[in-house]
Amino acid sequence: RMSVPYSVRLRGNHKAVRKAMKVNPFKEWIVNYLENRSLKQANLVIPASKDLARKAAEWGVREERITPPVWNGVDTDMFKPMSVRRFRKFTIAYAGRISPEKRVQYLLKLAETQRDVQLMIAGKKEMPVAFPSNVKYLGEVPFPEMPAFYNKADLVVLPSATEGFPNAVLEAYACGKPVLAAREAFPEELKVFGSVVDIDEFGKEVEALRRSDLQTIGLQARSYVQENYTWEKFSKSVVQCLKALTN
């Protein structure tokens, strides 16, 4: 029987996520094994970043089956600077799940030590947390409302222990917002508009960024994604990969 050719879009390092979440070791081994087998049997693996392309090779995928990275895009007509009601304090925003690998606890410690900062969090709660009084937890914000969410912030943060090619960075950039990211979370191919530091340096870096011209940095970030990270470019790259697969 002939097998049907298929491709896999590799969007993140799920092994690192399971490790950070302390999944049951036996379950972790089984899922890792099944994931590896699926990747190695795929005719094409389409990684979202250079780091994930290297990971696919490390996990045993034949190099000729790994395509060049296909980066995510962002709708810059939807995600754009806009006038919204804002907090009076300097505002930091985080968008993502509240789970161990996202390391939101570092942001909560930052909020506790810098009381003159307002922190906004949008995302599904997957672990118990206690929010300080200067943290506004919004729950799962509907996607159409996310541009307004970013526009309420002065700075967007990404503290994750692992990421693929995070849409949150592209969306923040498109809204004209600089990003402070942990080194493990920021793709090497993306240009930095803001700062990328070790997670333990977040508090000090927030203080430094507050003295920067964040508005100008944010406008530069928007121009950058408008030129380099559109969904049109993403779709063309994916079509090229699929043509190679069918041929």
Structure characterization notes:
- There is one protein chain.
- It contains 9 helices and 8 strands.
- The strands form 2 sheets. It has a 6-stranded parallel sheet with strand order 5-4-3-6-7-8, with helices on both faces.
- The model has no long low-confidence stretch (mean pLDDT 94).
- With 247 residues, it is of the alpha/beta class.
- α6 (167-174) crosses α8.
- α4 (104-113) links the parallel β3 and β4.
- It has helices spanning 14-20, 25-41, 50-58, 104-113, 146-151, 167-174, 202-210, 214-228, 231-246; strands spanning 7-10, 44-47, 90-95, 117-122, 135-137, 155-158, 179-182, 194-197.
- 39% of the residues lie in helices and 14% in strands.
